[in-house]
Amino acid sequence: MEHTDTYRHKGLRKKLAEIVAAKGITEDSILAAIEHVPRHFFIDDTAFAHRAYEDTAFPIGEGQTISQPFTVAYQTQLLQFKPGMKVLEIGTGSGYQACILAALGAKVFTIERQRKLFDKTSVLLKEMGYERIKTTFGDGYAGWPAFAPFDRILVTAAAPEIPEALLQQLKPGGILVIPVGSGKIQVMKRITRQPDGKLVTEEFENFTFVPMLKGMNKS
What we know:
Layout: H1 7-22, H2 28-36, H3 46-49, E1 58-61, E2 64-66, H4 69-79, E3 86-90, H5 96-103, E4 107-112, H6 115-127, E5 134-137, E6 150-155, H7 164-168, E7 170-180, E8 186-193, E9 199-207
Parallel strand pairs: 3-4, 3-6, 4-5, 6-7
Antiparallel strand pairs: 1-2, 7-8, 8-9
Helix pairs in contact: 1-2
């Protein structure tokens, strides 16, 4: 697939970063990543592609969405990570959030349960030059034990409860950010594993995510 990133696109990203900043994102590195990553590459549907730099979510197929840029930035800011940290993402989706993390210097490991999305996004990430992002087709509820433990874990779908496997794969001092709730609205939570192993939970704003489902969709 051929992708074109024009001066117009870059100008739209700059405006998008300004919108996200006005909503409360304060970390300059995150705003710079929003300006850097071409979001229109992740939207195939021509009905939405021209709106790629609106601060809104769009469908990407298989009942999934590319998250609102503010939501991406908000979750990323809650992670409080530093370049070089290992970050596990649950729900690769379009790949946009993974690329934002990679642009910030994270070592990204990302899991997708929808086979069609996994195949499409894995190709896209390589085409964009993000070969260092490690992708796998799997069940997000199980995490990725082979590469655990992780400094940070980010869940990009609404979980009815916090998966125990993800807590077990979090390093001491590590942080898990996850939207929790089974209704239409979820609470963004941040769970920190303290050096002594104790888990501390903080609650933040309400959001709306697609549900986090167990197992894998191989079709």
